[in-house]
Structures are given as C-alpha cells and as structure tokens.
Amino acid sequence: MNNMKKAGLLIIFSIAAASLVAQQYLIPHLEKKGNTTQLIVQGKPFLILGGELHNSSTSGAAYMQPIWEQMKKKNVNTVIAAVYWELVEPQEGRFDFTLVDSMLAGARKQNLRLVILWFASWKNGYSMYVPSWIKNNSDKYPRAKDKNGKTLQQLSTFGEATAAADARAFKALMKHIHDVDAKKQTVIMAQIENEVGLFYSPRDYTAAANKSFNSTVPAELMQYLTSHKGKLQPELDSLWKQNGYKTAGTWEEVFGKSVVDEKNWQTLSYLTEELFTVYHYAKFMGKVAEEGKKEYAIPMYVNAWLKQPLTPKPGNYPSGGPIPHTLDVWRAAAPAIDMIEPDIYVDDVFYTVEQYHREGNPVFIPEIKPGIRSANQAFWIFAEHDAIGFSPFGIDESKPDDDPITKTYFVLRQVSDLIIQHQGKGTMKGIFLDTAHRTQSFELGGYRVEAKLGSGSFAELAGFSVGQKKSELAGGILINTGKDEFIAIGKDYNLTFTPLQQDGKTLDVEYFDEGTFVNGKWVTIRRLNGDEGTGGGDYGFGFKTGNVASLKFQPSANGDYSIVKFKIYRYW
Ligand code: DGJ
Questions:
Q1: Do 319 and 416 sit in the same domain of this protein?
Q2: What is the pLDDT of residues 428-437, one digit of tens each?
Q3: Same domain, residue pair 288 and 358
C-alpha cells in the first residue's frame, strides 16, 4: 500500500473512531461538573420534570393512548413508566417488546422522554412481576426464608438461576431499546427493580444465605472498605470503627452483632444483617444493570421504600433496600448502579432528601406523594439539592387543570436552563414556606434574605384584590445572577434583603421586571413599578424597619408562578 493510501485509511479510521467516541459520549449519561452531577441528554444538561404513572398503566397500549397527551398538558417532560418482565418474556427465551414500542411511540408523539422501571424479580419487595415460568418453579428459582424456616413469597437473592434469567431479560430489553431508540433517546434512564428488600425478616435464612452469613465478608467489599477508609459514609465508618476496623472475618466479626433499638427510629437496628442483605440484593441487581449496560449504558438507579418512624426496623421496611446509610455497599457490590434514590411518602421531605444527597449520589426523586405540598417542594429540591429530576407518583390519576404540578412545571420549564447554570455554584436558594414555617432566612449575594409566607402585594394589603385567599403554602427559587441582581421564581411569598455590610448608603430599586425565558434568553413581559413594583420609598423599602429592600410577587389571575428580575442600587 502506498503512503497516500495509508494516510487515507488512517483518516477514515480516525473519523470512524471519533464518531464512535462521539456516539458513546452522546448517549444519556451523568457528568460531574464541579460540586454537582448533571444528567446529559443529547449533549446538554437535562432536568427531569417527571411524573410516574400508576403501576399498571403501561400494560395496555390502548389504555395509555389518551394519557400521553395528558402528560404533555401537565408540562411533564419525562414520563416514568413500568416495563414488566412477565409481559416482556411470557415464555422463557421468547421476548415481546410490543408494549415497549408502544410506549416509545406514545412518548415521542408528545415529545416526551421516558425513564423505564424494570419491574422484574421484585416490586415493593415482592416477586409479583416475574413470569409464570419463574413463579411455578421454586426449585430452580428459590424463595427466601425467615428465621423459622418459613418460605416467603419473595425470591431469594441467592437464586443464581433467577439472577441469570432476570439479567438476560433486562439485557434483551436494553438491546432492543438501544436498537430502536439510541438515535432519538426517548429513554434516558432505567430503574432496576422497584423498592427491593425483605419483609418480616432482616435477612434471608435459606441454607445458602446462612452459609454465606457465617462465612467471611466477601473480599470485594473488604477491599472497598479498606481502600475508601476515611471516605466512607459516617454510619458505616462508625460501625466498622466500633469493631476495630478489622480487614477480614465473618459479617458479625467485622461489623458486630446486630442490635435492635426500639426507641429511636433513626438508629440503625439489625445493621449487620441489613448490610449483609443489601450486599446480596446489590450483587443481584448490579449484575442485572451490568448486563443491561453491555447493550446500552444509560444511567441506572435503584429506589427505596424508606426507613420511617412507624416502620423503623429492617424487615418492617424492606431489609436490603437502598437506604442512604447503605450507599457504600451498593457502590462496592453494584458499580453498574449509578445512584440510589428515595420514594418519598413521608412528611419530612427535607430530612429525606438531605439523607440521600451524598457525595457522588445526585438527587433524583422517582416518586413523591402528589399534591400541592410536593408541587411547592419541587422548587426547594431542585435549588437546594441540584436534583436531576423530580416526579410525583400516579401522575395519570388527575386532570392537568386539577394537578398543581402543571403550574410548577410550567414555570420550571421556563427556568430549567437558568437552574442548570447555577447548580453547584452557591448562587441559588430554594424556598418552601407553610403555616408551620412562615419564614425562612439565608444569605445570598451579600444580603441576609428573609422569605415570608404571603404575597404582601400592594393590592392585597390595600384590599384591592378580589377573592384573594390567604396563602398557606409557597415554593420558589431565588437566584443571584449578578452584583445586586436577582431572579426570583414563585408566588405567595415575599422577600426582604438586608445588606450584610452596611455602608451608610440607602437601598432603592433600580428595576423590577416580570418576564420569562425564551430559548434561554430573558424576555421582559412588563416592568413592575408603582403599586405593582417594590415601589421604592415606603412601599418597598423599609425606612421604618431599617435599610432593607423588599420584593413582592404580583398575584396572577390564573394562579401562575411568576419570574421576576430585580436589581438593588444605593444612594447617598
Ligand atoms: C411505592 C411503589 O414504588 C410504587 O410502585 C407504588 O406502589 C407506590 N408505592 C404507591 O402505591
């Protein structure tokens, strides 16, 4: 071959290799950016404004037909929907992806993306979505047992044939999705199983499980602990420390005997048995994810039924699930799983989200109780925790006009790019107020900011407004976009700004605009001044209460959230 030909071939190979790399890079993936991790879809950071469908909705293509349009009307950009092992592989080795194709078609028609839920060996701990050929063969696909030897409904994580069959089916599913969807990227993430874990027993007591529990802790876990010493989650670190940081031994030698604390729900009862159980669920599900990723390596996560006040012990809540203090075990045993995430039906949403926001574990809320509270909490979760997504459960139950998430997503769609730009920078604060917490205070952009429940608009104060109800809930975001400049998103709350350093000058408003973003660019809808503005003078600036600037949202006739841009100046 002459040199010219060689050079030509080299160029062709390099182009082919570069486009392969580009293709690889461009599939949905997670990307670390400074202190935060973003979900990248088609090359751009993407916020999931999601909604999870009821469990059985996607088992009928015709049933789903009108729902896709409803999702669009709710301003959802991503639908979170189940794919069922029993319907994908009704006969062993024979796959049917008709329903999956109908989901892709339904979502694409409305320009929606999908996160798929792999309802397979376990759903809410139980094994109800496995195909009949698994259900009817307990010899090959064994069930877990409790301490008294009673067989449980739940498949055992020690069933090697079960893990192989589940992983094979998921691999086939991901191959299909890759083949029909990698270009369009309708499917952007996958959840492996659903809320796994054992009920009634902190661990499995089959012969295989007993033998494993009394054997040495697997080398891969020991190696992970040793190589991450000093960087482990505090709960695991303190347990390991209490037992002398042993580098080998049985589960009870390394982590101690399980203790049960009946009094405090937050303590880690049955921890050793729970960690053992987590390890085996993680091994199983890590294998499923790994096989799927061989075909299509989009982000994959697991979701948790939470430990909570009324169900405080592993076994009351599913033991072995992705509870936050078990994060290291998931990382060690299931590296193909990118994130562990909470399903939130408890009242203390903030505590829960904080528990899951750990180094390298981006926050995604695959399920949260729907309604007006969560529709307001969404702002706080996105702004305070750089969440990659949020998704009320049972999104197909209510009509778009009746669901408060419709308005939340309407405004969040406009400011998604702005939120993305400010993630991880310390320039954004989330606001959530209710009648029990009427004020919130924080520092931002050189000011102490106080957020108060109630619009406090001039019309409301002066009694001009018609039918104005007292605000009982408010959610929003405040972003510091430049020196003395802020963008606030929300309604039904007001803000005051007190300079952290008083310089003898007096604050006043330079401008106060209501607007929106079109293709990422600010567009002013109207300038707010006079009655609708901060007013300057006595309306907006508290000459009586000190040198503070204030911001009030104008109530909108249809209850929409506003986006306002506001700049403070000083005179002397
Ligand atoms: C949590 C589960 O993950 C969902 O599939 C659903 O069952 C909800 N609970 C509410 O019922």
A1: yes
A2: 999 999 999 9
A3: yes
Å from CA of 475 to ligand 1 middle? 25
Q: Which domain holds residue 489?
A: 429-571
Q: Is the pLDDT of residue 384 over 50?
A: yes
Q: What percent of the chain has pLDDT over 70?
A: 91
pLDDT single digits (tens) 544-557: 556 788 888 888 88
Residue 17 in this model has a pLDDT that exceeds 60: no
| Secondary structure of 217-255 in HEC code, one letter for each residue | CCHHHHHHHHHCCCCCCHHHHHHHHHCCCCCCCEHHHHH
Residues in the chain: 572
Number of independent structural domains in the chain: 2
What residue owns the CA closest to ligand 1's atom 2? 124
Q: Report how far ligand 1's centroid is from the alpha carbon of 195 (Å).
A: 8
The CA 305 to ligand 1 mean position distance, Å, reads 9
Residue 428 alpha carbon to ligand 1 centre in Å? 32
Ligand 1 close to Cβ of residue 54 (< 6 A): no
For residue 120, is it within any domain?
yes
How far from 376 is each of 356, 363, 541, 550, CA to CA, in Å? Answer: 20, 17, 27, 22
Q: pTM value?
A: 0.94
- How far away, in angstroms, is 125 Cα from ligand 1 center? 11
Give the closest residue (by CA) to ligand 1 atom 6: 55
- pLDDT-derived band at 15, boundaries 50, 70, 90: very low
Report the candidate in 553, 560, 565 with the shortest Cα–Cα distance to residue 515: 565
Question: How far, in Å, from the CA of 369 to the mean position of ligand 1?
Answer: 10
Ligand 1 neighbourhood includes 57 CB (under 6 angstroms): no
Structure tokens belonging to residue 143: 């069930």
Residue nearest to ligand 1 atom 8, measured at CA = 393
Mean pLDDT of 309-323: 95
Residue 3 banded pLDDT, cuts 50, 70, 90: low
Nearest CA to ligand 1 atom 5: 55
The reply to whether 182 and 324 lie within a common domain is yes
Please indicate, yes or no, if residue 108 is contained in any of the structural domains.
Answer: yes
Centre of ligand 1 from the C-alpha of residue 55, in Å: 7
Rg of the chain (C-alpha set) = 26
Domain edge (last residue) among 423, 443, 462: 423
Instruction: Write the CA distances from 241 to 1, 97, 226, integer angstroms.
Output: 65, 49, 12
Do 183 and 320 share a domain, yes or no?
yes
* Same domain for 113 and 86: yes
| Angstrom distance (rounded) from CA 13 to CA 19 | 10
For ligand 1, say whether the CB of 55 is within 6 Å of any of its atoms: yes
Structural domain contains residue 221: no
390 in the same domain as 357: yes
Same structural domain for residues 178 and 313?
Answer: yes
- The CATH number assigned to the domain holding 495 equals 2.60.220.20
Which mutation among 55, 191, 196 tests ligand 1's pocket best, with the greatest number of atoms within 8 A of CB?
55
Q: Are residues 113 and 196 in the same domain?
A: yes
Report yes or no on 66 lying in a domain. Answer: yes
Residues 6+ apart with CB under 8 A from 222: 247, 248, 254
Domain end call among 365, 393, 423: 423
pLDDT digit string (tens) for 341-383? Answer: 999 999 999 999 999 999 999 999 999 999 999 999 999 999 9
Strands of the sheet with 493-499, listed across from one edge: 439-444, 447-453, 493-499, 549-552
